[in-house]
Design a protein that fits this description.
Length: 174
Amino acid sequence: MSTVTQFNFEPLSDIMVTQRRDFALADKDLCDPQNAVALVDGEYTVINDSYKLVRATNIAAVGNAATQHSYPLFAERGRTDIRAMADKKMPIIFMGDFEADTRIFNAAVVVGSGAAITFAGQPLKVATITIGSRNYSGLVGHGGAADASPIVGRVTRLPAVNGGKLRYVKASHI
């Protein structure tokens, strides 16, 4: 299984074709690196009804699945430029296609009618996962037609052949 480090989300494709947007955090403490549950790059977020950024899932319990389209956070934990802003905005990849390596996943966990991550091309969804002793809002295997959770991407390279990182693609048609 992967471990959380300073760089957990590494785009491989040209990100110039993506639209990155900064959104204010609903909970400003989530950008404080001293906070035990601070957001990390590669963790998945959603935009709430107040047009603010929140985690895609409730991380209180493993297995909570995201119920709406989610966006990956594109900022390393503790960045001072984010912490210096009064409204504590964080960047997400909002629109566009990309391929990336991530450490914020759990290939073995099965959430709802999902499946373990086992093959290239497999669809992915977002759920609460555990890495080490902490919960995150990250990627797990989607269960196909029987799974009502939104698909956020597809596996392009398994962690076993990619240095422990999951490689996936997010395409506009997903």
